[in-house]
Amino acid sequence: MSIRNRLFIMLLVMIILPYFLSVIFIYENSKSAIEERDLAKSREELRESGKNLEHYIEGMVQLPYSLFNMPEVQRVLENGLLTESTNHMQAFENRVETYAATRPDIRQLRFYFEKDQQSLTVYKANVSAPKPAPDYMENPTFRSLYSAQNAYTLGVPHVLKNEDNVAIVPASEDTMVLPMNHKITDVLSGDFLGFLSTDVELSSLAPLLDAITKEAGTQVLLVNDSGRIMYSEEKKLLGKRLQEEQLKSVEKNLVLKEELGEPLTGWRLIKITSKDVLFRDARDAAWTSVLLGFGVVALGIVLVIVVSRVFTKPIIQLSEKVRSIEGGQMHVELRTDRQDEIGHLAAHMQDMLNRVDSHIEREYKLELEVRESQLRMLKSQVNPHFLFNAIQSIGAVALRSGDRDVYKLLVSLSKMMRYALQADQLVPVREELAYINSYVMLQRERFGSGMHVAVEVEEKIQDCRIPSMLLQPLVENYFKHSFEHAQQAGRFVLKGSESNGEMVFQARSYGVPVNIERLQLLRKQEAGGTGLRNIAERLRLHYDGEAAFHLDNLNGEGFEVTIHIPHRD
After folding, report:
1. Which tens digits make up the pLDDT trace of 46-76?
2. Which CATH superfamily is domain 426-566 in?
3. Cα radius of gyration (the chain)
């Protein structure tokens, strides 16, 4: 594909994709902002509406007790309807009518008197004639309430019923009511006196929920502790069990729940908001932006065609010249007579091409010389320390032993010197261990048999190659910094093994402790001698970051050096 076609596609993408991505981004951000705002607002409104419901129901639950405590009412509840005089009954009815008239949300009251098995209905502050009710205790609600510890229950909403078939309740009555049933007992004796059933108009709850029902696309449900719907604007849902699957449809609806307290413990106030309605404004704005985007795209296509045809021709010509360099030909004429940016680019590319050719060889050779010089310098720092200690050891032995011991030491020294001449070479681990054993033998002659040095290297890695003189400084450091300064007998252990394709060498010096402050300085290479620094530097030069070098203080018991070297054939 030519650069002209690529530029054409690129410019199209730069116009279309960013624009529509921005539309999608703005739309999604608007949705998130709207959802967060609606969530915060709805949660607050749910809390307020829940408190209003709790206060309202609490008031309705407590209201009948003021009626029961009236002397006129209490007398009739204790003695029954049939035994009271006309005056007492008239006073009773006046109190009941006044009670019902003061609360317009009370649609109907029904008294059931245990004394004479009678019932009395009050409809819109009108009192009916008494009706016999010998089997009212057969009602499951009353039977359950009679044996319960609670003094009241809240029933399931239903259409108002004319339970006692009294004339004051019209046949056309179809008001939805919320029944509240109270058990009436004597305050002093605790004797059961009967029941009061209060039918509260369900619509009286609507003003309490107005804050959360006025929004379009919103459904509010009041669900009791048994999972039945106690309030809904859809009458067909009242009294039915809530389908939890409806609340799980998070793709279509935004669902919020508020747990209610006394006297509605276990009840939930649920607000279901349609996301389709909630995000309608944001969606309309997005579609408007999309339509505008198509107009922008049409204009952009015209611009792309002009740009791709007028400005890409010299770039294509320059590209064809650059392709000739792919075969390794560095002498290509890229300069043109153009005086614009493309002409300057071609001239700079020509200069760069000429410089690259000359720099490649020079930089490559310089790097090799620098590395060789670094290796020679590092190795030269190690040998003087070794020779000094070796000569000192031989001198000490010469002062206290015969020629045969001196001869053995000289043999070991010669082997070590021959090995040391292999500077900067890769040698088998076996040869490095032989060098260490010779060095330890010299030190054993110097310090006597009280030293404890152990070398435990697995046989399978002894033929692997490592840089010469890599492990010897670890042993030397033990004698220099630990053995000579230890107040009690110390020991040195060098272990070697293979793990996960690596050679792992672990040198532990037990004796002189290393505190955490000095350990940090050693890790930063701000303390210590040349030995540890040389090891770290040689690992870096030979393995270019593939090897690892770690220091530890063995929890104050000594010093540990761990080296990880890649296993190479």
Report:
1. 889 889 999 999 999 999 988 888 988 988 9
2. Histidine kinase-like ATPase, C-terminal domain (3.30.565.10)
3. 49
User: Nearest-CA neighbor of 176 among 263, 241, 236?
Assistant: 236
CA 462 to chain centre: 49
**Interatomic CA distance for residues 309 and 555, integer angstroms:** 73
Q: Write the CB contacts of 406 (distance below 8 Å, at least 6 apart in sequence).
A: 394, 397, 398
Q: Domain 1-327 belongs to what architecture?
A: 2-Layer Sandwich (3.30)
Element (H, E) at 224: none
Tell me the backbone φ, ψ of residue 246, rounded to 5 degrees: -65, -30
Q: How many CB atoms lie within 10 A of CB 292?
A: 12
The pTM of the whole model exceeds 0.90: no
Domain ranges of the chain: 1-327, 330-378, 382-421, 426-566
The b-or-e profile of 207-235 (16+ CB within 10 A means b, else e) is ebbebbbebeebbbbbbbeeebbbbbeee
Higher pLDDT, 432 or 399: 432
pLDDT band per the 50, 70, 90 thresholds, residue 398 = low
**Which residues, 6+ apart, have CB-to-CB distance to 7 below 8 Å?**
307, 308, 312
Instruction: Express each pLDDT in 315-334 by its tens digit.
Output: 766 676 676 666 666 566 66
- SS3 label, residue 517: helix
d(CA 233, CA 409): 106
Helix (H) or strand (E) holding 121: strand 118-123
Say what the pLDDT of residue 335 is: 65
Q: Residue 495: name the closest of 454, 456, 552 by CA.
A: 456
